[in-house]
Sequence to fold (261 residues):
Amino acid sequence: MLWEYVHDILPISPKPEFVVLLNAVKRSKPTKAMKETEAELRGHAIFGVKTLGNTVRDTGQLTAKTDYTGFSLDRKTSVTGIVNTEMNSVANELATKLGIK
Amino acid sequence: MMPGADAKAILMLAASDLNNSELKMFLREVERAGAAEALRRIEHLRMIAADQEPQSFSYRESHTSARDAEHKNIVSKVESLLLGEAGLPKTRASHILHSEILSELGGSYYLPSPNKVAFRLWLSRLLDQVPPSTVLHVASRLRNSIVHGDKSLSDWPLNS
Fold:
């Protein structure tokens, strides 16, 4: 819908770069339905190449907390290192795709 | 001097690119400064080298492991798509992926050959040249075509 709105309706030029990022992807083994959905998106003629290979995986580290204000990765937990590495991979891929790295 | 040590030192000087006049200057300087001073300078250089060497290796290691960590998830996803879900043998999977990516990119790209290389290593090398989104796009397209002949099984098929 957003794609159709921006490309077919919204009178702006040049059109913004579309990048799809899968967010809150479960860390547990994906179900058949999850695999089908992701494979359909990644294999899609338009959206496939626009979908980043790296994903933001589900973690309490990135969940909003009522008792904490600030950058979530500044809050040190047992998974901070892993989430930091994952976010770096996403950021590096995004920067390369946008041509700023 | 230990047997052979003088020959080693002479051999190293011979292997250097110092010409005769520079060699003469060097030997005169050693004679003037004395053996102790020459040894002190050699020890100093060895200490600098000892400090530098581990740093340069650890840089290469951390650089490689950071890149490998970035590739690891993508490599696992491609394996799951092509070897797991599509049931392709590794050799067939790497050759078909290689050819499909070349056709996707327009054919003028240099891609690492999948011949005689472990599947994971080849994928990692491929990801040095091709964006992960493109590799996964082509792998997913192949998987979809093999698993259900391009017909979407999703409850909400994507349009556009």
User: Anything to note?
Assistant: The helical segments of chain B are 5-15, 20-33, 35-85, 90-105, 119-129, 132-148. The radius of gyration of chain B is 29 Å.
